[in-house]
Design the sequence.
């Protein structure tokens, strides 16, 4: 069985797993809306939410096409968080993932455009 997608550091996995589980239970409004549009195989492939990749928990992952979707709220616009997000994106891209970022507002108010962009990438 090909398990290349199992990338978490075993020493960190327990904490990451608990955080991912908590994140799934406490989704933001934008994450809930996005999830309702992509869950199951609504876009032709399975989507995972709050998935562990390396030392990161990504908001959504289309594993087959290696597309990561991040939905960013207000704190993502601070200088420090933008630096952290850039490092995270670079790491994921170096592992072969394509990272797409949408703001909460885009997901909530430009839903058709978000889905159109996503369909192009996956």
Sequence:
């Amino acid at each position: 069985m090909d398990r290349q997608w199992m990338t978490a550091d075993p020493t960190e996995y327990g904490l990451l797993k608990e955080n991912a589980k908590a994140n799934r239970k406490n989704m933001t409004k934008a994450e809930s809306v996005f999830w309702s549009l992509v869950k199951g195989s609504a876009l032709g492939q399975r989507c995972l939410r709050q998935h562990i990749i390396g030392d990161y928990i990504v908001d959504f992952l289309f594993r087959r096409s290696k597309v990561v979707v991040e939905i960013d709220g207000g704190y993502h616009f601070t200088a420090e968080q933008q630096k952290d997000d850039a490092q995270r994106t670079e790491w994921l891209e170096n592992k072969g993932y394509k990272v797409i970022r949408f703001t909460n507002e885009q997901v909530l108010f430009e839903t058709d455009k978000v889905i159109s962009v996503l369909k192009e990438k996956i």
Observations:
- Confidence is low (pLDDT under 50) at residues 1-5.
- The domain at 27-121 is CATH 3.40.960.10 (Endonuclease; Chain A).
- The chain has five helices and four strands.
- The CA atoms of residues 30 and 105 lie 8 Å apart.
